[in-house]
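Hi C.,

You asked whether I'd gotten around to modeling the 217-residue construct. I have! Everything is below, sequence then structure, no commentary in between.
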Amino acid sequence: MPIPHTEVPGHLQAALASRGLRLTHQRRTILSIVETAKQHLDAAQILRHARKVDPGIDRVTVYRTLKLLKRYGLVDELDLMHMQGEPRTMQKNPHYQDVVTEVADFFRQQYSRALECGVDPMAIAFDPGIGFGKTLEHNVTLLKNLERLRVHDRPLVVGVSRKSFLGKLVGTSEMSDRLAPTIAFTSILRARGGDVVRVHDVKENVAALRVAKAMQP
């Protein structure tokens, strides 16, 4: 996504101004990123893009700004995603002592920080960040232990669709060969605690979910 200009829609500026809320440069940057993207972005992605414009923007500022967006009906959910390192380096020898424990601890810490910033706990969901600073073994371990990652019964969002670790798992380098393992994971993960599954091939994955649901006792 290109770096956006720090422009905020007039209706939002008016809504904030009417309540005596000042739009700082950092808030303008975050709001413009959400507006420009026109797509789902989690808090980590917003923070990453915002820091390209202003390196001084921190996670607390993102949370507080997203709280404003939710108040005015511009976002419905705050996804807290785990990622080790930065996008350019995250796959260079990622290391954990215990990946499940460390990701779960991260979720608990970020949940507390979000509440401290006034975010509605019912608006929070968690994403283990499959493929973001994780080896094949780390990804599979997290997917096997989704329920251990759950915090305060909030939803777990999982995205494995077409990711490179699927090719490694089944022994292929062809992108087209990742559809079958994606569908397999979709069926399995929904039964193992994945509340939301992000996919590219919607029709095929919905069909898989319907079959999995039919087989439930």
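If it helps when you're writing up: The domain at 1-76 is CATH 1.10.10.10 (Arc Repressor Mutant, subunit A).

Thanks,
B.
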